[in-house]
């Protein structure tokens, strides 16, 4: 199938224009990724500077042997963590955006306040949370006059981390949803009004499908966020702990995501870089798979304007 | 477009000119006879301690012309060691690096350091024995002890008295401690808790107190360790104590691992009767509680029925990197010795609460009457000076001691949450052994 492009006569020109992005991708994504794949085949220690080829032993250690249960736990809880962060994050921000988009007094101020957390770095968001939820000297327990174990009761700590991660990314989602809501054409909504559709029906049958491209885009960026960018929050808030309930979740800290475990194994402890690279490989495969599935099954259903 | 280009060119020219100036200046200063440069990287970035180090550096530079020392805080202990390893690869490692005690084997294995004991001959007999023991590897003094501390018991005396005990009562064992807390709770003393940071350091200390080695092969000192003794009777005794704390709800912490500040805040906030932390915090905690309650200090409580062996030294020591000329090595050694000389260790101790690592410094402090004015410090000293030198109290040497701390902390938390002691510890041992095996396979 040979397509002729109306704008660019030759392929050379299009590659020329693409070259800056390709160069950046090659330098910062593909080359490091390639290096990580190679590194995962070696026994390599950051401090010792050793490098010994051991084939698939690192990968094997992820799935069999004494270190495997911890890795399995982290994989499962990463999926739960991401599902919650993305699911709650997108629904809450959609709800808030629709509310903030209404013609009410002071709407501009609400919008600004809602977007605010976006300006915080994850580390600062987590530090604020730490001041508030410290079980002994935190603000929340002081106000409630209770002693809720926010950070050492595993399930609570996990949910708290999810909530802070959602809150931190709320602003980002709302910016996109608000922009999308304001560019929704009035005609289909008016047509729905004339047909006598209820507000709920109007939302689900007109607004929501028209927000499709935005939701699709946010789904992707939020998944990436929950996998990678929540690192700062976890590092400041819980350092990956506390250990979860047995018999399955008691091998590692309940808030240790795959990303955080890569860091712990590669740069913490005795810095087993090869093992960490193997974990990174699994993380990479994970993201590739999710992205593929998304484009394969969801991408087709999205209706793009124009 | 042309305009932008001109501006760019102008900018470029100025930058080049600036750099040219810089090199010219450097050249002129080169003509003066240059002292040998010695760089010292450390991990004590706070104003008080890095200021103290800078002062000693200035003193040393003023005292002689042969060497010129500069100091730099490089972040955490880990960051400092990593930076030193990288710098050595690029051929410009600092002469002196500050390494923490659990990183000793790791630093040793990086192969960028040399034992300071191999640089000429010098007298180390003045250094306090249990401290020097930790930093002696294969019979040679490997590094110069610098900031050393060990854990002691901090007591909220007001709560102790309210519970019906005399003000100078000090619990000797875990059981004593638990009994006090239970009595206090019966008498409705508010917040009668035990608070200490959830830290593997205490596990290591309690092993040493019982005279038990944490690693096989004599704590990794007779040969490379291959096994972590997390299921030994001594380890189980510690586990049982934690289990009781958890079951009876006697322990209070922030929920985070290694949260020194958080657990200190619980104690200084009048929310605990007993607290365990480093002797290096004596100064800070004394000041913090001055207005709220009377502070008492005692030796680290140990498992009931165990013979007290003493504590392992914690903190850091100063290592010499090997890829330098003979003269640089000597200069580096001399500065490390100057930094830890009698007078400097006296002022270091007064500033921070770290042990002065020389016997002569202790004598001097005694003469000055320091211990009379601050009797709490004496408790800490006695704990150190009565430590029985053996391979348990010399401390463990292993490449994965850092991993071990996390593994022990997870196990401690599981036990506190009601996990079965034997089962939790044997799971922890399996992981710790696997990590050690993985590390040892690098050689």
Q: Descriptors for this entry?
A:
heterodimer, A: 306 residues, mainly alpha, MetI-like fold, two-stranded antiparallel ribbon, 68% helix, B: 443 residues, alpha/beta, D-Maltodextrin-Binding Protein, domain 2, 2 domains, six-stranded mixed β-sheet, globular
Strands, helices and their partners?
The complex is a heterodimer of chains A (306) and B (443).
Chain A: H1 11-39, E1 42-45, E2 50-53, H2 57-63, H3 68-100, H4 107-115, H5 122-133, H6 139-144, H7 154-182, H8 186-194, H9 199-210, H10 212-229, H11 231-237, H12 258-267, H13 273-298
Antiparallel strand pairs in A: 1-2
Helix pairs in contact in A: 1-13, 2-13, 3-7, 3-10, 5-11, 7-10, 10-13, 12-13
Chain B: H1 2-30, E1 36-42, H2 47-63, E2 67-73, H3 77-89, E3 96-100, H4 104-110, E4 113-114, H5 129-134, E5 136-137, E6 140-141, E7 144-149, E8 151-156, H6 157-162, H7 174-186, E9 194-196, H8 200-209, H9 216-220, H10 233-247, H11 260-268, E10 274-278, H12 282-289, E11 295-298, E12 314-321, H13 326-339, H14 342-352, H15 359-368, H16 370-373, H17 375-385, H18 391-394, H19 401-416, H20 421-440
Parallel strand pairs in B: 1-2, 1-3, 9-10
Antiparallel strand pairs in B: 3-12, 4-12, 5-6, 7-12, 8-10, 8-11
Helix pairs in contact in B: 2-14, 14-15, 19-20
Describe the structure.
The complex is a heterodimer of chains A (306) and B (443). Chain A has a two-stranded antiparallel ribbon. Chain A has 306 residues and is an all-alpha fold. Chain A is built from 13 helices and 2 strands, in the order H-E-E-H-H-H-H-H-H-H-H-H-H-H-H. In chain A, a hairpin with a 4-residue loop joins strand 1 (42-45) and strand 2. In chain A, helix 3 runs antiparallel to helix 10 (212-229). By secondary structure, chain B is α/β, with parallel strands linked by helices. Chain B has 2 domains: 36-149 and 313-376, Periplasmic binding protein-like II (D-Maltodextrin-Binding Protein, domain 2, 3-Layer(aba) Sandwich), CATH 3.40.190.10; 151-311 and 399-440, 3-Layer(aba) Sandwich (D-Maltodextrin-Binding Protein, domain 2). Chain B is 51% helix and 13% strand. In chain B, strands 1, 2, 3, 4, 7 and 12 form a 6-stranded mixed beta sheet that branches. Chain B has a 4-stranded mixed beta sheet with strand order 9-10-8-11. In chain B, helix 14 crosses helix 15. The interface between A and B is large, with 39 and 42 residues.
